[in-house]
Amino acid sequence: MARCISPLVHSLVLVILCQQVFGGQDLVEGPESVKSTIGGRILLKCIVKNRSGIVQWTQNGFGMGNDRDLPPYPRYRMVGERTEVNNDVIEEFSLEITDVQLEDDGKYNCQVTPTDDDPRVLLSDEVTVTVIAPPNQVLIDGGDIKSLVLGVPTNITCRADGGKPAPEMLWYKEGTGRITNNTYTIATTNESTKVTDVISIVTLKATNADHEKRIECRAKNEALREPLSTYVTLNVQYKPRINMSHNISRPMRENDYVRFSCDGDANPREVHWRWLRNGHTIGGQTRSYLDIAQISSDYHQNTITCEATNIIGSTVAEITLDILYEPKFIGVNQYIPVDLNKSVTLTCNATGNPQPQIRWRRSDSQAPLSETTTLTLSRIGKEDLGMYICEASALYGAFTTKKLDVYLLLKGPPEIKSKLKQFAEPDLDGKVSCLVRSVPYPDQILWIRNKKIIDYAQSGRYSITQTQMADGVENILHISHLTPSDFGEYICTVFNGYGNDTKTIVLAETESLHLSYIIGAVCGGVAVLLFIAGACILYHRFKSSDNGENKDIIKEGVETDKSYAETDSHTEFKKREKSDSPSDFTKSTLMDEWRQNLNYHCPTEFDEINNINNVYNDPRLNTSGYGTLKSDNIINGYENHNGHLFSDYTHRSDESFPVENMNGYNTTNYGTSTFRSGSRTDFMKPDYSGDPYRLPPANLSTTQLATNV
């Protein structure tokens, strides 16, 4: 083995010595690794001394040919000159690459083939050509405006495609600088082109301060002198933010005009409005305000809700109402049937804001019987029957006291109160009324015709209707298309738990008035109206003249300082001077008689009103001046409670005109009704002494005195 190696070593040493002595081919300068951008120029050095072999370049291990122009590679060529230095021939075969492209990226070396004179293969170091490329462009997905929802994490994506090497992606927010948190990058490299597409994502949780701020995305790599950048403007969207108010600055009262309004802001601004009451939609209300022309007590403690909606979401604002309203009675049974010697509890419930106070009293007394919602009466006697008043007052709310009549009705057998003769017209529909006073209500009412109970279902012409009243019912028998045979007697029979009653009612044909009677009545009515109108005119005329004369009298009396008797005598003397006939002289005396009648038929600005104290003690409105009907729903009553418990008319001693309607005059309530009860004999007579403006009624002595002057 040693013998074999030794000759080889000797041969190599001999070759080296020969090259040094005779100057063989040698690689003077080789290439170096280089980077270039697309479109640039690359020059890889290859300088050979005393070349005897063939020079060629390899790219990624493949030879490119020995022709300096390298025909297969139009952008490649070997460049350089041939020179002699100290008897050595120096030749340059450097590789020039123009318009560098991505495919030029790779491994390169320069080599010289051996020859017979020099069996060596000259190889340069393998170098790397790196082609770098900037990204094509930088884009943020979604356009120039990026919409984010307030408080909701949102991804913003930026793309940089075609870069080599992969670009570094950076995020910046206007006003705060670089964003380093919540970012990540996805890089995808194309194996053939060796370029990398990069996607960078930043996650933002937008705040109100971010609205209209810029978010910038930057991409940088070695191919760029300055980073590529783009930006979007943030549009921070949010659901409506609203406030609710109303136009009432004081405590809200029943019947107030109320406008509820909602205002605020939203993004987007396209807002749809909805109004709700206690969670239920109020139809037709699609504006930012809700008008209630007269708010009622039904709205007390209701919740009014305003709802605003845009594409982001909905927001509600609400107000729970506290409405002041006057006392209102609820669920009160006004008609209580009772048995003697039994106990009964009257209940009076009232609502209001503030909560009203309850007081019970008798209708003929101001003394309170109870100040709770109930009034219990034990062992009822006849003196306990009648009307009780429940008063509900709410002084805090400045509301008037409300009063409700409650009646104790004695149970007993029914009694038919209908007119025994009733009328109808032939060939029309008719009816027969059976008015029944019955406490308790009747158990059964029968109609009998021609000794047979009427069968409404089979008759085809008969039907009944029934109306309940406080102390009974009205049962009406209807008869369709009356014929002569339908007129005659009808028997009404009524039953309750205490007994029964029967009455025969005659249905008769209506008697028509003769035309001449009708014409005469009309003419007479017109004449009466004309007479009254003339009397009113004369009254006003004489009143004006009297007022003028009285002023003259007062003026003359002041100037002469005479007594009242002298002034009156002088006045009558002046009247005689103005008159040439006895009839004119007696005008002032006749006026006294006229005034008494005209005060009732032609009332002027003065009214008969007394008992001013009742106004403050118990204000009950009665603008008619005729007292109060106890109940329109009472058929008949008992005559054991002050003699007039349930008569057709009873004067209410606790009623009076409101003070504010009196114009400052003395106020008195007196009865002049033609509907007064026959059992009432204690009506107050008019008293004119308290009113200096009222004309006193004429009497014989006054008239005679004036005539004799």
TrEMBL record:
<feature type="domain" description="Ig-like">
    <location>
        <begin position="327"/>
        <end position="405"/>
    </location>
</feature>
<feature type="compositionally biased region" description="Basic and acidic residues">
    <location>
        <begin position="565"/>
        <end position="581"/>
    </location>
</feature>
<dbReference type="GO" id="GO:0005886">
    <property type="term" value="C:plasma membrane"/>
</dbReference>
<dbReference type="InterPro" id="IPR036179">
    <property type="entry name" value="Ig-like_dom_sf"/>
</dbReference>
<keyword id="KW-0472">Membrane</keyword>
<dbReference type="GO" id="GO:0098609">
    <property type="term" value="P:cell-cell adhesion"/>
</dbReference>
<dbReference type="InterPro" id="IPR003599">
    <property type="entry name" value="Ig_sub"/>
</dbReference>
<dbReference type="Pfam" id="PF08205">
    <property type="entry name" value="C2-set_2"/>
</dbReference>
<dbReference type="InterPro" id="IPR007110">
    <property type="entry name" value="Ig-like_dom"/>
</dbReference>
<feature type="domain" description="Ig-like">
    <location>
        <begin position="119"/>
        <end position="233"/>
    </location>
</feature>
<dbReference type="InterPro" id="IPR013162">
    <property type="entry name" value="CD80_C2-set"/>
</dbReference>
<feature type="domain" description="Ig-like">
    <location>
        <begin position="7"/>
        <end position="113"/>
    </location>
</feature>
<keyword id="KW-0732">Signal</keyword>
<dbReference type="GO" id="GO:0005911">
    <property type="term" value="C:cell-cell junction"/>
</dbReference>
<dbReference type="Pfam" id="PF13927">
    <property type="entry name" value="Ig_3"/>
</dbReference>
<feature type="signal peptide">
    <location>
        <begin position="1"/>
        <end position="23"/>
    </location>
</feature>
<dbReference type="InterPro" id="IPR013783">
    <property type="entry name" value="Ig-like_fold"/>
</dbReference>
<dbReference type="InterPro" id="IPR003598">
    <property type="entry name" value="Ig_sub2"/>
</dbReference>
<dbReference type="GO" id="GO:0050839">
    <property type="term" value="F:cell adhesion molecule binding"/>
</dbReference>
<dbReference type="InterPro" id="IPR051275">
    <property type="entry name" value="Cell_adhesion_signaling"/>
</dbReference>
<feature type="domain" description="Ig-like">
    <location>
        <begin position="414"/>
        <end position="508"/>
    </location>
</feature>
<feature type="region of interest" description="Disordered">
    <location>
        <begin position="565"/>
        <end position="587"/>
    </location>
</feature>
<keyword id="KW-0325">Glycoprotein</keyword>
<keyword id="KW-0812">Transmembrane</keyword>
<protein>
    <recommendedName>
        <fullName>Ig-like domain-containing protein</fullName>
    </recommendedName>
</protein>
<dbReference type="InterPro" id="IPR013106">
    <property type="entry name" value="Ig_V-set"/>
</dbReference>
<keyword id="KW-1015">Disulfide bond</keyword>
<keyword id="KW-0393">Immunoglobulin domain</keyword>
<feature type="domain" description="Ig-like">
    <location>
        <begin position="240"/>
        <end position="322"/>
    </location>
</feature>
<keyword id="KW-1133">Transmembrane helix</keyword>
<dbReference type="Pfam" id="PF07686">
    <property type="entry name" value="V-set"/>
</dbReference>
<feature type="transmembrane region" description="Helical">
    <location>
        <begin position="515"/>
        <end position="539"/>
    </location>
</feature>
